[in-house]
Specification:
Length: about 250
Amino acid sequence: MCRHLAYLGPLRDLATLLLDPPHSLLRQSYAPVDMRGGGTINADGFGAGWYPDGATTPIRYRRAVPIWTDSAFAALAREVRSGAVLAAVRSATVGMPVVETACAPFAAGRWLFSHNGVVAGWPDSVAALASRLPVTELLTLEAPTDSALLWALVHHRLAAGASPHYALGAVTAQVHACAPGSRLNLLITDGTELAATAVHHALAVRVGDGEVLVCSEPTDQSSGWESVPDCHLLTATSSTVDVVPIPATTAEEP
Ligand code: GLN
């Protein structure tokens, strides 16, 4: 299963956040330690999204190659500084295409989104749920993958005015109801706050000194990391973290 990371805090260069730590996202691409049976390495592409200082719309860099092969990104990452970053390395689920557009982060407007996991029984299990989306939203999915559909479901709720944590909680509960056994670690930010779910996959958080880091696996061995319990929803700003159980009742809502 893919690995993902989000950061909110003081301006940092992308290399410091994604490439340099002892168990960085780069290292998690070829030597992850907590994949829980969902693949072995994350070599099917990667992506990083960041908000330039003062900007509310993010910039993305995505490629369908292993992150460790992309020297252009390594050089770029030393020069780009941001106080809000969302990045992921991908292990494509069997049967899903290895293409740039299937790599997180998915984006729309001010949002960046990632999914770490798999929808069980794809695509039949979620066909009825997907059919409730407007046809144009299905026709314009970025890729024919479970993650792209999850993003469409989340974005549909955001566009209707839902908060990010409500949208993630509701979509997670809905998908879990029709596709039990799915692994649904979702992660979203608008550059000032973030929300994340832990559903049958690893997730850790560290907050302090005016910054928050959420990652599939801790990026170092410092003492501040906390594991997010299974079936929980996390919301955070650069200085606050709140973790609550995912409300099952949201599964019933449209
Ligand atoms: N199932 C998704 C995909 O193939 C996510 C991959 C993952 O978490 N391994 O893109």
